[in-house]
Amino acid sequence: MRVLVVTAVPAERDAVTRAFGGEPRIREVPGAELHLAGPFDVLSGGAGPAAAAAATAFALAAAPAPTPYSLVVSAGIGGGFAPAAPVGSLVVATGIVAADLGAETPDGFVPVTGLGFGRDTFLPPGALVRDVAEATGAVRGTVLTVSTVTGSAARTAELLAAHPGAVAEAMEGFGVAEAADRFGVPVLELRAVSNTVGPRDREAWRIGDALAALTDAFGKTAPVVESWTRHDRLDRHRD
């Protein structure tokens, strides 16, 4: 049994596989290629929730039945909400939330669940979140999925008012979670913070530092995930 990791861009994918040294093995799947390193099959699925969902679904569908994947991880860099998640820190999601899926009304934004259909939140396994946070030093909290990266103080305030427990935002987690859920596979989201959510200032971004933090995080996460998936399989077998 292995773990599927979905990133947005090749730089994030390579940061994950670098944790294990050497050249990863490559396996082709429809529309993408998997880079196999340690316990992880890592793919670069594209930016945004739609691309992430499609890539995740293709990879899960292409796996031999029954799927060998016991976990799907949405991983990469993202923006951190100050002061909870400063630049260079790691965050692991206690909840993966589609922050802008819904409707604008005269009274403000209404999430899709408030419209009476769909869902806007996925909850990763609590014990796994705890163990990954302890192993990596990651901050635990809600990670928001947005289709448009936040670039103003006003929008930052709106998001924090609607999601007081938010520690970071990114663009793929909810799409990955949606696809994983349809295959009955649990999901985790792990992000390295490259910038502070707020007024857009590319000169203040630390993408290289965040990618290095992501590499370090996956080196520490691998034994945790392997242990968790082994015990999860035993628990399912007992059930």
Outline of the structure:
The chain has helices at 10-17, 49-62, 126-136, 153-162, 173-182, 207-238; strands at 2-7, 25-29, 32-37, 40-44, 69-80, 90-98, 102-105, 108-111, 121-122, 139-145, 166-170, 187-196. The protein is an alpha/beta fold.
Question: How are the SSEs placed, and which strands pair?
Answer:
Blueprint: E1 2-7, H1 10-17, E2 25-29, E3 32-37, E4 40-44, H2 49-62, E5 69-80, E6 90-98, E7 102-105, E8 108-111, E9 121-122, H3 126-136, E10 139-145, H4 153-162, E11 166-170, H5 173-182, E12 187-196, H6 207-238
Parallel strand pairs: 1-4, 1-5, 5-12, 6-10, 10-11
Antiparallel strand pairs: 2-3, 3-4, 5-11, 6-9, 6-12, 7-8
Helix pairs in contact: 1-6, 2-5, 3-6
Pathway: Quinol/quinone metabolism; menaquinone biosynthesis
Enzyme class: hydrolase
Keywords: Glycosidase, Hydrolase, Menaquinone biosynthesis
Describe this structure in words.
The structure is a single chain. With 239 residues, the protein is of the alpha/beta class. Helix content is 36%, strand content 31%. It has 6 helices and 12 strands. It has helices spanning 10-17, 49-62, 126-136, 153-162, 173-182, 207-238, and strands at 2-7, 25-29, 32-37, 40-44, 69-80, 90-98, 102-105, 108-111, 121-122, 139-145, 166-170, 187-196. The chain has a 5-stranded mixed barrel, surrounded by 5 helices. It has a two-stranded antiparallel ribbon with strand order 7-8. Strand 3 (32-37) and strand 4 form a beta hairpin. Helix 1 (10-17) packs across helix 6 (207-238), helix 2 runs parallel beside helix 5 and helix 3 packs across helix 6 (207-238). The protein is globular, with a radius of gyration of 17 Å. The relative contact order is 0.22. One of its GO terms (molecular function) is hydrolase activity, acting on glycosyl bonds. It comes from Streptomyces mutomycini. This is Futalosine hydrolase. Residues 42-208 form the Nucleoside phosphorylase domain. Keywords: Glycosidase, Hydrolase, Menaquinone biosynthesis.
